Amino acid sequence: MVSDYHKENLYLFGGIFTDLESENVYKNDMWKYYTLVDKWELIIPFGINSISRRVYLWDGTFVFRDVLVETPSEFYTKDDDIVNYMLSDMDDSNYVRLPDARAGHSMNLIGNPPYYILIYGGFKLETETSTSSGLEIDIRENLDDLWVLSLYSKKWHQVYVNSFENPSEREESKMVTVSLERLALMFGGFYSNEIYDETWYYNLFTNMWQKMDVSIDPSTSNSAIPPGLKGHSLVSSEFGIVLYGGETWFEADFDVTDANYEERSTYLSSCEIIIKAEGLSVDDIGTTAFEDAYAR
Question: How many C-beta neighbours within 10 Å does residue 110 have?
Fold first, then answer.
């Protein structure tokens, strides 16, 4: 969810909805919340969600088959001017898709005026049928696609960037506006068991990603580089970027964890002996009476 420049409206895209049968349904709808009047509005975007072809069968009946175009046309690649792309520029002869239903994506408001919402990454579930058992299996797929929605024209557009080095697929990264005119900064996220401490920024005018080389300021004693994080908060202020919270993990050192487990088992065994010998209870652990008994 993001707010507009004047903090009067909130925008919500996608996520997971649990239906009455307790099944997770992934969404790709965009909603606008008016804070002043306490009202939600569903934004109806322009674009072609699918193209179908009528296929006639031998008996004269027909069925509809979806037409999929995987390769974007030249119009939507290098020469794309996102800032000036308006509804009147839409060419219905091209396959214009809406973003896949997803969750765990980054979302940010950008532009001057800030009329563009960026969506990056996240994950979706694809249901496949097992050829051996015939059972349906949900396959989790992480995404690395970038989309922009013009709030002026209500037109979704998938962005095919000009840069060669780009962020890999990830979920639960966070994006924040650095410059309303052109820059959005993204930090963190994870894919599988790998968590990222990378900082990227996207330039709206050049249509390029660039990975930032973050370093420690030697003149400041508390200067540090945050670890890889997911689910953190990231906000922009006049003094810089503020990061708070999140979740991280590190590769386990089994020499340490196994030793800690052995020490814990030994301690619990000692506690059990003392409780029985001294006539104490589990509730006495940590009290002075228990510590005196443990010392003896």
Answer: 25
Instruction: Report how far residue 182's alpha carbon sits from residue 162's, in angstroms, rounded to the nearest whole number.
Output: 15
SS3 of the chain: the string is: CEECCCCCEEEEEEEEEECCCCCEEEEEEEEEEECCCCEEEEECCECCCCEEEEEECCCCCEEEEEECCCCCCHHHCCCCCCCCCCHHHCCCCCCCCCCCCCECCEEEEECCCCCEEEEEEEEEEEEEECCCCCCEEEEEEEEEEEEEEECCCCEEEEECCCCCCCCCCCECCEEEEEECCCEEEEECCEECCEECCCEEEEECCCCEEEECCCCCCCCCCCCCCCCCCECCEEEEECCEEEEECCECCCCCCHHHHHHHHHHHHHHHHHHHHHHHHHCCCHHHCCCHHHHHHHHC
Same domain assignment for residues 237 and 105: yes
Identify residue 283 by its one-letter amino acid code: D
Are residues 175 and 72 both part of a single domain? yes
- 100 with 235, same domain: the answer is yes
Residue 8 forms part of a structural domain: no
- Is residue 33, in this structure, part of any structural domain at all? no
What is this structure's pTM?
A: 0.67
140 and 283 fall within a common domain? no
* pLDDT tens profile 239-296: 888 889 999 887 766 666 666 666 777 777 778 888 888 888 777 777 888 788 877 7
Other C-beta atoms closer than 10 Å to the C-beta of 284 total 17
Q: Count structural domains, the chain.
A: 2
Question: Same domain for 156 and 189?
Answer: yes
